[in-house]
Amino acid sequence: MSIDRVTLIREGSKEPLKRQRSNRSARSATSSAKRRQHEDGCVTCLRGTLHCYNVFILIVGCAALGVGIWLLVTDFGARKVTPIVGNQLYEVTTYLLIAGGGAVALLAFCGCCGTIREDKCVLSFYGTTLAIVFIVLGAACGLAFFFRSELASKIKTRMQDSLSLSYGVDVRTNHENKRITDAWDAMQRQLQCCGIEGNVTSVSSWMFYKSNTKWFNSKSENILKKVGGTFMVPESCCAPGNVKICTGEEEFRGPPSYHNNHNPEYRKTNPYLYTTGCYDALLDYLHTYSAVVGTVAAVVPLFLVFGIVISFCLCSRVSGYSHEDEVDL
User: Rounded to whole angstroms, how far apart are CA atoms 111 and 187?
Assistant: First the structure.
């Protein structure tokens, strides 16, 4: 067979291959055109919506994180509520709120990256994690309102026991007693109260320290040995001003040196002493802030539902285009 004939045969066999490649290129171009046309509608809208949503959810997540941290680190925060009420639900709820808010803020950045790149894996991770955060914040909401409904049960008894037996006792060696002491001091300063309950005439308010606490016995013995005076209430029960008159180190014709004396001269109002018990103020405080935690933990998941739906819709669109291109090629 001559060389020219062989060359003609080879060139003839290449022509069908060229036609096949040309047809594939045409189909691919048509598919790409369809994809771009489709993308101009649905995908562009989804991408823009998710971008705006991520900016908004970043603000919401930072707000929830800020509320949780504030409730934790404030003078009478969640960690100091636990030793007094003997219930960790409020503290756990605050930690869940912090975790959920931080995760939402972090995921907003992840969602922006996934939207820009149209990465199926990143978008799937984003939507799945939003769903998990939704569950966490839902649990926080439930715990907050459950804690609020169960708030009054056994709190007064717990307050009496902790103040009577643990306040100010062996605080250097006993970690639990120190936690209780710090918690009581923080609560009395924050809520401007003293003792358990009642007003200036009650034996369960400021008078509770003198009549029912180990702290008073140990403190008075030590002070008598040193300076001849005695602490009748701790300094955390004092308003700004003369602390010695408040605590009983200096003579004052009224509380805390005298209680319901028959002589009117010994019933003066002490301007430096909180004379109202803490029970009612504590209930109001916890009702207010548990409602704040519960409301924040309930509102944020409502926004997360929208993000979950949008992210999975965009993810399905992106994966659909990839599959179509693979088939056409």
Answer: 42
Residues in the chain: 329
- Mean pLDDT score of the chain, rounded to an integer? 77
pLDDT average, residue stretch 231-253: 89
Structure tokens at 244: 């010695």
Half-sphere exposure of 20 (CA within 13 A, CB side): 6
What is d(CA 82, CA 72) in angstroms, rounded to the nearest whole number?
11
Closest listed residue to residue 233, CA positions, set 220, 219, 247: 247
Cα atoms in the Cβ-side hemisphere of radius 13 Å centred on 221: 4
Q: What is the DSSP letter of 235?
A: G
Among candidate residues 111, 168, 142, the one with its CA nearest the CA of residue 294? 142
Euclidean distance between CA atoms 249 and 261, whole angstroms: 19
Q: Is the pLDDT of residue 70 over 60?
A: yes
**pTM of the entire predicted model:** 0.72
pLDDT at residue 183 is higher than 90: yes
Category of 15 on φ-ψ map: left (φ > 0), alpha (ψ -120 to 50) or beta: alpha
Helix (H, G, I), strand (E, B) or coil at 234: coil
Cβ count near 322 (within 10 Å): 10
Q: Please say whether the beta carbons of 163 and 208 come within 8 A.
A: yes
Amino acid identity, position 126: Y
List Cβ<8 Å contacts ≥24 apart for 125-133. 126/311, 127/307, 127/308, 127/311, 127/312, 127/315, 129/103, 130/104, 130/304, 130/307, 130/308, 130/311, 131/304, 131/308, 133/100, 133/103, 133/104, 133/107, 133/301, 133/304
> Taking Cα atoms as reference points, which of 176, 163, 168, 282 lies closest to residue 212?
163
Mean of pLDDT values over 155-168: 90
What single letter denotes the amino acid at residue 96?
A: L
For 238, the 3-state DSSP assignment is strand
